[in-house]
Amino acid sequence: MKTSLLLLFILLVVPSDEQADPEHPRIQTSSQEFVQGTVAALKVIQTSNFEEGVETPGLEASSNQDFQRLIDEINAKSPIAGVGRGDGSTNYDVILQPGHYLRTSGRTGTHGKFVSEQGLVAYITNIVASILRRTGESVLVVPADNYLHPTRFGADFNGLHSRVFLAIHADGSDQPCTTGPSLGYQKPATAIAMNFVALGLADALGYKYDDFRKNFTANEADYYMFRQVRAARLMGLLEVGELTCEKSERALITSSHAVGANVARAVDFILRTPEGATGAK
C-alpha cells in the first residue's frame, strides 16, 4: 500500500478564521460516514488499478521561469471549454463548478501572493473537464451563478441532474497557514466515493501520513449548489488547499496539473466502478 493511502485515515482540516461563507464552509468535525467509507474505499482501491493512473508532484515548475509561466497561465483565466448554463432536462455524466467562477462582485474568491482562487480552480477544472471528455464522459462546467437555463421542467425539482457533481475551490485565512485541504459531500452514501478524490489530491501534492492529523471531512449539505443539483454517484465539494499560505500556494501552483489529472482519474474511476463499491444506491 502506498504511503499516501494513509490519508484516507486522517485528513487535515483546520477551521478557517475567514468570515463564514456558504462557498467556504468551515469543516470542524469528523464525519462517521467518511470514516466508515474510508475502510470500504481502501478495499476497492487495493483490488483495483486506481493508483496506476495517478500523478505525483511533477516538475511543471522546475525553474523560476517555469514557475512564472504557470502563474501567467493560471492568471490568464482562459475560458473553460464548454462552460455555460445547464439544461435541467439533460442527465450529464459530470457537472463541475469552479469556485466563484465568472463573478466580478460580491464573493469573488480568495487571493494568494501569485494567483487568485478563480484563476487556479478554473485552470484545474479545465484539466479535469478535458481529460474526462477524452474518456467519453459528458461534462458540463457551470459558473458560480446563472448556471441554469431559465426554463421550468418537472413538478418537484427545478435544477440540474448528473451522475457526479463536484465543486472545486481553494481556501484562504486571515491567519495564513492555518487551513488545509478539505472535502465535503452532500449525502452519506457518497462518502466512499469522496475518498477516491481525497487520494487523488494527496498523491498530487505529495502528502504523507503525518500531514493529515486533524479531522475528517464533514457532511456539507448546506453548500448552496447541493440544493440545485441531484447526482447519483457523488455530490462533492473540494477545497484543494490554502492560497493565503505562500508555501501551500506554491505547492498548488506547481502541482496544479497533477491535481487536475488526479481528480479526473478519481471521477472517472467513480463512474466506472460498480455502484455498490462507491456507496451509491
Short account of what is shown:
This protein is of the alpha/beta class and 281 residues long.
Q: How would you characterize this protein structure?
A:
Residues 1-20 and 209-216 have low confidence and may be disordered. It is globular, with a radius of gyration of 17 Å. By secondary structure, it is an alpha/beta fold. It is built from seven helices and five strands; from the N terminus they run H-H-E-H-E-E-E-H-E-H-H-H. It has a single domain, classed as Zn-dependent exopeptidases (Aminopeptidase).
How are the elements arranged and paired?
Elements: H1 32-46, H2 64-75, E1 91-98, H3 117-134, E2 139-141, E3 160-171, E4 182-185, H4 191-205, E5 229-242, H5 246-254, H6 256-272, H7 275-278
Parallel strand pairs: 1-2, 1-3, 3-5
Antiparallel strand pairs: 4-5
Number of helices, where a helix is a run of at least 4 consecutive DSSP H or I residues:
7
N-to-C SSE string, H for helix and E for strand: HHEHEEEHEHHH
Number of strands: 5
Q: So, the CATH homologous superfamily?
A: Zn-dependent exopeptidases
Classification by helices and strands:
alpha/beta
The parts where pLDDT drops under 50 for at least 5 residues are 1-20, 209-216
What overall form do the CA principal axes indicate?
globular
Helix content: 25-40%
The CATH class assignment is Alpha Beta
Global Rg: 17 Å
Q: Please state roughly what percent of the residues sit in beta strands, choosing from under 5%, 5-15%, 15-25%, 25-35%, 35-45% or over 45%.
A: 5-15%
Mean of residue pLDDT? 80
CATH domain fold name: Aminopeptidase
Q: Span from first to last CA?
A: 28 Å
Tally of discrete structural domains? 1
CATH architecture: 3-Layer(aba) Sandwich
Strand order of the largest sheet: 2-1-3-5-4
Largest sheet: 5 strands, mixed
